[in-house]
Design a protein that fits this description.
There is one protein chain. With 259 residues, the protein is of the alpha/beta class. It folds into 2 domains: 85 residues, Nucleotidyltransferase, domain 5, CATH 3.30.420; 137 residues, Nucleotidyltransferase, domain 5 (2-Layer Sandwich), CATH 3.30.420. Helices cover 38% and strands 22% of the residues. The chain is built from 7 helices and 10 strands. Strands 3-2-1-4-5 form a 5-stranded mixed beta sheet, sandwiched between helices. A 5-stranded mixed beta sheet has the order 8-7-6-9-10. Helix 3 crosses helix 7. The longest helix has 28 residues. It is an enzyme of class 2 (transferase). It is found in: Cytoplasm. One of its GO terms (biological process) is coenzyme A biosynthetic process.
């Protein structure tokens, strides 16, 4: 079985893939000092709790936090006896070659999202990922990542607003009942929700304009379901797009003889 690990700036996700479906998905906060033993204690406790019997033979890792990769490598080697595939490293094969400026290092999360989206939907896509940052990944007709956009994430913007303006409270984001707020919380929620709706819609339209063709918009990430409530913002929402992309890259490496 495959253990797919996606380590983001805020959360780390472990999913067990049996070749046909994900048996379970486990989440923890990302912490660069967490040791291999600590990962295994957390992982084995939850797997036992859910009654999952998983004989892990392969591990693949995508991490936007470089400092956690070493301990995750040790975790895979020590407890599963395997050398993990790490997306973005030279020995990890990709089913596409990114077409970006020479010397540009594309984030592994964007490579994984591209692979997962193309496998499910074909090319000419815009993948909007609502994570710590809100990213837009442009997937060409042949599955190649050809660039994108990075904007501050929703929760990051809320936190910055709270920290920079002492009189403004920290609020949870939700879709407001009306645009014009009649109290401070409603005003902030309206500004953030409708502001990001406008941001997503405008950026996607400009990407389509530069590409000169229609492109399907795929949403993923924790807050994507919230913004899906805005009519016609996305064509579809994929809650497991990143983890699916990891299985696609893992399969490609196995089929092409990667170690």
């Amino acid at each position: 079985m495959l253990l797919a690990i996606d380590c983001g700036n805020t959360n780390t996700v472990f999913s067990i893939w049996d070749g046909e479906r994900f048996l379970c998905t486990l989440r923890t906060s990302t912490h660069h000092a967490r040791t291999a033993d600590a990962y295994f204690t957390w992982y084995s406790t939850l797997v036992k709790h859910y009654g999952i019997e998983a004989d892990i033979t392969d591990v693949i890792i995508s991490s936007t936090v470089p400092r956690v990769v070493f301990n995750l490598r040790v975790f895979a080697d020590r407890f599963f006896g395997c050398r993990p595939i790490v997306v973005g490293k030279p020995d990890c094969l990709l089913p596409f070659t990114p077409r970006v400026d020479e010397g540009t290092q594309v984030g592994p999360d964007r490579l994984v999202n591209t692979a997962g989206a193309f496998d499910r939907h074909g090319g000419n896509l815009i993948v909007v990922d609502f994570g710590t940052a809100t990213t837009f990944d442009v997937v060409a007709f042949d599955g190649a990542y050809v660039g994108g956009v990075i904007a501050p994430g929703v929760n990051l913007s809320l936190e910055a607003l709270h920290l920079a303006a002492a009189a403004l409270p920290h609020v949870d984001i939700s879709k407001p009942q009306k645009v014009i707020g009649t109290n401070t919380v409603e005003c902030i929620q309206s500004g953030v929700f409708w502001g990001y709706v406008g941001l997503v819609r405008e950026i996607c339209e400009r990407i389509r304009g530069e590409s000169g063709q229609e492109m399907k918009v795929i949403a993923t990430g924790g807050l994507a379901p919230l913004f899906q409530q805005a009519a016609d913002l996305f064509d579809t929402y994929e809650d497991d797009l990143t983890m699916h992309g990891l299985t696609v890259i893992h399969r490609y490496n196995k089929e092409n003889g990667a170690p």
